Here is the input.
Amino acid sequence: MKKINIRKANATDLPEIYNLVKELAVYEKEPAAVTATLSDYNADFAAGIFEAFVAKTEEKVVGTAIYYMTYSTWKGRMLYLEDFVVQESYRKFGIGQQLFDAFLAEASNKKAKLVKWQVLDWNEPALSFYRKNEAIIEKNWWSGKIFLEK
Here is the structure.
């Protein structure tokens, strides 16, 4: 196993982050659902809309955790984990745990009261990972959304 460096992402990482997100969409059986472009990523990253951590070998980014600050009216500051993915060939080496730990540390640094994310009900490897980390998997809250652009 090559040495993995976990660090905050910078703009030069965005093409590889974008490719990882597309890889995640394929895994989640929704490849056509990715309509944001790399240009969107560049503009939104530069504007501070989202941040990310990357797991990088000497050659390439092999994992990412993409997040942003939001607000819980019940609890206060909340850090939302939008996407969390490690390339399939690099799974089972603890990289996901390192990225998740960096995300949790970032939440603490930002004085967040909680972190939150979504996970598909059929994604047993992810559910197992989150349970191992003592996460509460809510089953009584349904997600709602409206697409403003088609």
Q: What stands out?
A: The helical segments are 14-27, 38-46, 95-109, 124-132. The two ends are 42 Å apart (CA to CA). The chain has a mean pLDDT of 95. Residues 98 and 111 are 20 Å apart (CA to CA).
